[in-house]
From TrEMBL:
<dbReference type="InterPro" id="IPR007197">
    <property type="entry name" value="rSAM"/>
</dbReference>
<dbReference type="Pfam" id="PF20903">
    <property type="entry name" value="SPL"/>
</dbReference>
<protein>
    <submittedName>
        <fullName>Spore photoproduct lyase family protein</fullName>
    </submittedName>
</protein>
<dbReference type="InterPro" id="IPR049539">
    <property type="entry name" value="SPL"/>
</dbReference>
<dbReference type="GO" id="GO:1904047">
    <property type="term" value="F:S-adenosyl-L-methionine binding"/>
</dbReference>
<dbReference type="InterPro" id="IPR023805">
    <property type="entry name" value="Uncharacterised_Spl-rel"/>
</dbReference>
<dbReference type="GO" id="GO:0003913">
    <property type="term" value="F:DNA photolyase activity"/>
</dbReference>
<dbReference type="GO" id="GO:0042601">
    <property type="term" value="C:endospore-forming forespore"/>
</dbReference>
<keyword id="KW-0456">Lyase</keyword>
<dbReference type="GO" id="GO:0051539">
    <property type="term" value="F:4 iron, 4 sulfur cluster binding"/>
</dbReference>
Amino acid sequence: MTRPSAAPDGGCDALFGLESLGAPGTPSATRPAGDAFRTGDIARRLLPVRQIYAEPAAAASPRGRQVLDRFPHARVIEVASHWGIPGLHGNEGNVERWVRVKGETLVLGVKKNLVTRPNGRSADWIAPGPSNGCALACSYCYVPRRKGYANPITVFTNIDRIIAHLGRHIARQGGKPEPNQCDDTAWVYDIGENGDCAVDALICDNTADLVHAFRHWPTAKASFATKFVNPDLLGYDPRGRTRIRFSLMPADDSRLLDLRTSPVEERIAAAGDFLDAGYEVHFNLSPVVLRPGWRAAWADLLRHLDDVVPQRVKRQAAAEVIMLTHNQGLHEVNLGWHPKGEDLLWQPRLQQAKRSENGALNVRYRNHVKAQALNDLRELIDAHAPWLRIRYAF
């Protein structure tokens, strides 16, 4: 596939003029000058991209061209669809290259089914995400369960249509009638259900465009969880309309299970900077993995959180507590590339079958085990970080 020329993109059904959002789909005016982190050594090590599978329309779009220009030496392979790519998805031989594929491969696609789903737990709504997949390699991640043997980032290049869809959806909701566990006054939209927006920002301006868009919507707020500290996001000027949720677990667990992520200590240390940059800063205590000594490990983490987090962060912080959910198919894939992690994740003695909201058959901790663990963790939070309000736990 030859790299596309800079031909004009097709029309857009935006709710308002794209110029008011800094023209989504083109390099964002909201990005900090210099973009030092995106082009630095850490980003190059995380994403040494060598090949890009691309739908023709995605490659020809302004956002697609931005990604191709970002990785000028990558081989571009034309595909009919970003889903079910022969030789990538469903190729059992990729298991041994699990981490390499995440760094060396990207996919460009057009997101065709733009649907915002109700949630009511972490967020009021799950937005159509700007990506699917991740360059990080958390061995418990639910996204690869539907992809087979490879889970690189798929970048959706029609960010203008995603933003237009969100604008219409937000307008239909009107003001939030009453507080709930998601937020007191704003409709909260999770924009990163199937990826990590902080990592996506290393590739293109999709995250910047979304943060910028939510500044224009006074009744709504964006939200995404991350395990990666990307300083470039500090220049996006969210003006309080984006909630960043730093995911935390004890450091020893993270070193085994959160591969390629920022160290937990760095995520905690970044909280003050992100609050000062205009973000709402929350924490995800997730996943909670039960193993010998887990209570002492979480007590240590909570004490560290209490010692390091500034008072200004504590005053507005809240947390989600999410117990581990796992999956038979993912367990079998993980045995091919990271079997040590499965010693913690796969514990049939403690786990039972669970049918998830999306219809997948997973495993979670048995009801009595989970209930006791949640009670224990609440007591630890009360003892070591009493300022940390739990928004929800499951």
